[in-house]
Amino acid sequence: MNTTLTRCCCILASFLLLGPTVAAPVTTGQDPETGLRFWEWRGEGVLFRLDQRLPDQTRAFFLARGFDRASADQVATRCVFQSRFRNTADAGAVTIDLDEWRIQVPGDAERRLLTREVWTRRWQAASLPQPARIAFEWSLLPTRQRYAPGDYNWGMTSYGLAPGQRFDLVFGWRRDGRRHHARLEDIQCPPDIHPEPQ
Amino acid sequence: MRSLLPVLLLLASLPGLAAAPPAGGQMLTPVAARPQAPGFELTDIDGVRHRLADYRGRVVIINFWATWCPPCREEMPSMQRAWAQLREQGVVMLGIDVGEDEDTIFEFTASYPVDFPLLMDRDSAVVRAWGVRGLPTTFVIDAGGRIRYRAIGGRRWDDAAVLDRIRALIPH
């Protein structure tokens, strides 16, 4: 009974500290031409979407912007998605902080996203040319951003997992000082496949 | 306490309210503080130097972008159409590319032709000074050099409501 009560109190504390986990329609699907999958969450005046990017796509993008092969491989194989975050409400700004988002893999400790700042530290040792570092920084979703109604960003997000690995993402935002979070379940990192042109 | 727990847990598990209707996405966000726009001096892809201070007395639209950025590409034709309607009224439009060179931008303009100046912020110093965090981000500066509107993400710049807001800043 004590265990049950403790668990209930933990859940209640989570609710009070973190705000409610918002349930909203999640749309998932697959691009009929590329076969790449997407996950989209829409609710509470927010839209968040993840689209798989094949490692080959990401590798080619960064090779074309001055990355050496090893550095491009390092990014491409760390579970990269094209991401969109939008404030769809009529009023009120929304802020995000990717450092507060959590990656959950069954049987594994919670992880954080590999943000611009994490990668910047890695590139300091890699001697990447300046244009490559600038392109990389701006191509990732901002770590922190404030979205007025109608504002949005597109950008890559990197989860540091192996190609094909599955995970849940607990993502969040603040509106009017209140913290919200939601969950996208069973996201699959893009597989490292090399489709041939039809 | 124990009798309250089920109620509190039920409240905690309630789904969120229905999603608000989409806001349309054509909004320009008023910048309430109207801060002075940070100055800059940059070269465009034709080698012409541009100083923001040179445009004092005119309304200036400043768009931070990059050729590889999908929403930047998407909004670029509407920026050209907007400028075609505003240039005769003295409005200045400047695209500031972040981190790329003349050749890359010139190649881009073959697919996305624009007539307004495309400046290069090669080391990204200007975009940082403006506090931008994601591309595209666009600012509307009034004749006094103050930031009046901001838009994060793309817009349809030739939308009538957007043009009206910009025209309202033109000094008479």
Describe, in plain words, how this protein is organized in 3D:
The complex is a heterodimer of chains A (198) and B (172). By secondary structure, chain A is of the alpha+beta class. Chain A has a single domain, classed as Sandwich (Immunoglobulin-like), CATH 2.60.40. Chain A has helices spanning 2-18, 55-63, 69-76, 116-124, 130-139; strands at residues 26-30, 37-43, 46-52, 80-87, 94-97, 102-104, 144-147, 152-158, 166-175, 178-188. A five-stranded antiparallel beta sheet of chain A has the order 1-2-3-4-8, with no helix packed on it. In chain A, β1 and β2 form a beta hairpin. In chain A, 39% of the residues are buried. Mean pLDDT of chain A is 88; it is low at 1-18. Chain B has a single domain (26-167), classed as Glutaredoxin (3-Layer(aba) Sandwich). Helix content of chain B is 28%, strand content 21%. Chain B contains five helices and eight strands, in the order αββββαβαβαββα. A six-stranded mixed beta sheet of chain B has the order 1-8-7-4-5-6. A two-stranded antiparallel sheet of chain B has the order 2-3. In chain B, β2 and β3 (49-51) form a beta hairpin. The interface between A and B is large, with 44 and 40 residues.
